[in-house]
């Protein structure tokens, strides 16, 4: 549970707002009921029950955005009703309400909802001049203070959104090559191993690709030359795979290409196409660059670590067999039967 709250910002915010509403609004609902303000008590009660239901819905379905928007709209309607029922005494609720809204929906949407609230209140005031505001001065003070609070909340929420997006990108992408990073790879392999076998007979294959004698380029031509090769390699891999295929930097000069819905034979053919493309197109100023590839199709009942480890063993064999070749991991030809026959397909350089 804590793990989900840590990973899902929207769910954490929605839960927080739900808890605050439960703890802060419930006593008011009870007080209003005994005070005889039945309309306000009902509005408060609806707010508590609906917010709690929306939080439960978000936990159950993982649809946090829809639930957040629902709660935000509910708050808007609730606030207008509270202000109408309580008059000037209810106006102070606008300030926590403004902050809540920015926690629940994206900044621009929150600003538009707040504008809608303000327009609704002014329209009601047009018809019933003393229902919400005591006098014109109070109305102007309310408009100015709530507009200033909304504006600064918007700026803060927008800045936070940009920073969160940047952090998410930094946590997911390799800074040098722009490929998805090791963290993303672990998630993608876990997901594939857990969910794809139930969906299709040939769930997925991974190609573990390692540049040959890469250290030589670094040592003789410098680290920058090596960096350029890595960047070009990722471009090449991304250009020559399907949009649905994913390219990850595993670490150093090792990369993974994850192919969904392919047979072992198709995976082997993609691996050899990529190996050939690298040999034909990638070079530093002094030497041609080649790569060795280990290929493993996901087997039934195999976890992602075992899958990756088979690809790693196949890559190790490709290196031992002279490099610039593709080796199929044990069992990869029979993903449904998990048979342990090893098939190796070396290519000469
Ligand atoms: N330029 C550059 N080099 C890197 C980066 N990450 C790892 N390396 C280098 O990659 C090299 C890997 O060397 P080795 O593990 O010996 O592998 P290799 O020379 O490719 O030899 P084989 O894999 O056995 O063919 C090391 O020199 C690392 O410094 C990087 O981001 N940029």
UniProtKB/TrEMBL annotation:
<keyword id="KW-0812">Transmembrane</keyword>
<keyword id="KW-1133">Transmembrane helix</keyword>
<feature type="transmembrane region" description="Helical">
    <location>
        <begin position="12"/>
        <end position="31"/>
    </location>
</feature>
<dbReference type="InterPro" id="IPR050469">
    <property type="entry name" value="Diguanylate_Cyclase"/>
</dbReference>
<keyword id="KW-0548">Nucleotidyltransferase</keyword>
<dbReference type="InterPro" id="IPR029787">
    <property type="entry name" value="Nucleotide_cyclase"/>
</dbReference>
<feature type="transmembrane region" description="Helical">
    <location>
        <begin position="67"/>
        <end position="83"/>
    </location>
</feature>
<dbReference type="InterPro" id="IPR000160">
    <property type="entry name" value="GGDEF_dom"/>
</dbReference>
<dbReference type="Pfam" id="PF00990">
    <property type="entry name" value="GGDEF"/>
</dbReference>
<feature type="transmembrane region" description="Helical">
    <location>
        <begin position="112"/>
        <end position="133"/>
    </location>
</feature>
<dbReference type="InterPro" id="IPR043128">
    <property type="entry name" value="Rev_trsase/Diguanyl_cyclase"/>
</dbReference>
<keyword id="KW-0472">Membrane</keyword>
<feature type="transmembrane region" description="Helical">
    <location>
        <begin position="37"/>
        <end position="60"/>
    </location>
</feature>
<protein>
    <recommendedName>
        <fullName>diguanylate cyclase</fullName>
        <ecNumber>2.7.7.65</ecNumber>
    </recommendedName>
</protein>
<feature type="domain" description="GGDEF">
    <location>
        <begin position="202"/>
        <end position="331"/>
    </location>
</feature>
<keyword id="KW-0808">Transferase</keyword>
<dbReference type="GO" id="GO:0052621">
    <property type="term" value="F:diguanylate cyclase activity"/>
</dbReference>
<feature type="transmembrane region" description="Helical">
    <location>
        <begin position="139"/>
        <end position="157"/>
    </location>
</feature>
């Amino acid at each position: 549970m804590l793990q989900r709250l840590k990973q899902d910002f929207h769910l954490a915010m929605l839960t927080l707002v739900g808890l605050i509403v439960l703890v802060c609004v419930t006593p008011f609902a009870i007080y209003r009921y005994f005070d005889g303000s039945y309309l306000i008590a009902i509005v408060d009660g609806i707010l508590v029950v609906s917010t709690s239901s929306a939080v439960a819905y978000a936990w159950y379905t993982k649809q946090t955005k829809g639930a957040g928007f629902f709660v935000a709209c509910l708050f808007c309607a609730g606030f207008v009703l509270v202000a109408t029922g309580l008059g000037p005494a209810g106006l102070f609720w606008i300030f926590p309400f403004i902050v809540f809204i920015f926690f629940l929906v994206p900044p621009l949407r929150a600003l538009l909802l707040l504008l809608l609230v303000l327009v609704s209140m002014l329209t009601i005031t047009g018809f019933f001049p003393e229902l919400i505001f005591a006098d014109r001065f109070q109305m102007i003070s309310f408009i100015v203070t709530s507009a200033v609070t909304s504006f600064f909340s918007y700026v803060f929420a927008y800045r936070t959104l940009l920073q969160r997006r940047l952090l998410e990108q930094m946590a997911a992408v390799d800074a040098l090559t722009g490929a998805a990073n090791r963290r993303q790879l672990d998630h993608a392999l876990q997901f594939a191993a857990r969910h794809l076998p139930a969906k299709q007979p040939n769930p997925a294959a991974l190609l573990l690709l390692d540049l040959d004698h890469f250290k030589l380029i670094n040592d003789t031509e410098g680290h920058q030359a090596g960096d350029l090769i890595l960047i070009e390699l990722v471009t090449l891999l991304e250009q020559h795979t399907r949009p649905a295929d994913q390219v990850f930097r595993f670490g150093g000069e090792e990369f993974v290409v994850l192919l969904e819905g392919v047979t072992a034979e198709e995976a082997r053919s993609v691996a050899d196409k990529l190996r050939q493309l690298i040999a034909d197109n990638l070079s530093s100023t002094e030497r041609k660059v080649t790569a060795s590839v280990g290929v493993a199709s996901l087997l039934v009942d195999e976890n992602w670590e075992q899958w990756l480890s088979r690809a790693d063993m196949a890559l190790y064999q490709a290196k031992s067999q002279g490099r610039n070749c593709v080796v199929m991991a044990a069992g990869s030809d029979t993903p449904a039967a998990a048979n342990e026959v090893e098939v190796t397909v070396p290519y000469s350089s």
